[in-house]
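Chain A, query sequence.
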Amino acid sequence: MTRTWQDIAKAKQTALLDSIPPEWRVPTDIMPPDSQLDVTSFPRDSGFFTKDELKYTTAKIPEILQQIHCKAWKAVDVAQAFSKRAAVCHQLTNCLSETLFPEALERAKFLDDHLQKTGKPIGPLHGLPVSLKDNFNIIGKDSTLGFVSWVGVPATYNTVLVDVLLKAGAVLYVKTNVPTAMMIAESVNNTFGRTVNPLNRKLTSGGSSGGESALIAFGGSVLGVGTDIGGSLRIPAACTGIFTLRPSFGRFPTANAKSGLAGQEAVNSVNGPMARTLDDIEFFAKNVVNSEPWKLDPKCLPISWRPVDVGRKLRLGVIWNDGIVVPTPPVRRALKQAVEKLQEAGHEIVDWEPELHQEAMDLLAQFFVADGAKSVRDI
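Chain A, predicted structure.
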């Protein structure tokens, strides 16, 4: 009997929930009701997490690394705490697409043993849990991108960035939900359903890196990696109040990642960090660039990390209205506040009236389907 797409999706969702250990499943008597919109306080207030688990998952990256590297904390304990918090976040927001909990704990134990034997960390990310958007291939794990037809088709190779992170000592423990083909600004698809915002579960966490933004805003990840073409890092970060960086193409490696619309040579996707602090964003950028990723991805530019001390007044342009979409009052207020802060710091602000945005949008729409959508029709 041929299974319907609904059967396949249901089985995938069930398998994902079954991958959560029973002891990490939220009991019904403390499960927040649907009417509770903001669930970000659940880890702190529910009593479901130990003091140590809260300590690990609320620490910033420098503290996590320092405590692991000086052997005050074990990487396996940190990995378990973040895995549990991610599992809880999924039960409240539907943010995950794949779990690697056993693999993460095995990896963390290996790192602890290595540190104990050698006295040296494997790399600058030794023991740091890192979450990844669904399109980053990890050997043996699906990268469905929301397509039901890609369920049960595990990757046979790693994305280059995955190898870079592993070499640096990272612990990979979850992959996160996206919209179908990663092409809309909210994370919903036929395979996993909709991811919601932990700050208000009636609202979206954005897209296409919306699983990442929900997880980070909940505290289930201290550092995640998403991707962006037309806002897929920036929109989720704005929706959930976290930090991100949409780099120029060629700065971070993108080779061997899975694409929902393959062959986008005119409009290239980039990947970038998502985190709770700006310092954590810089930490990721510096360490990825210092790994010399251009030796693994020929599209990466061979430009070393260069600390910059601006030390001078900047001249910055601001767009109040792009001529296509009028900003809502809260967005306009945020722009105004940013402009005022920059002016107070001595920088010059220049109002910029864009003239070609509609033409650019029209070209973008053509670039997206330059192959007649063949890559999607063949799925």
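The radius of gyration is 21 Å. The chain has two domains: 5-306, 308-379.
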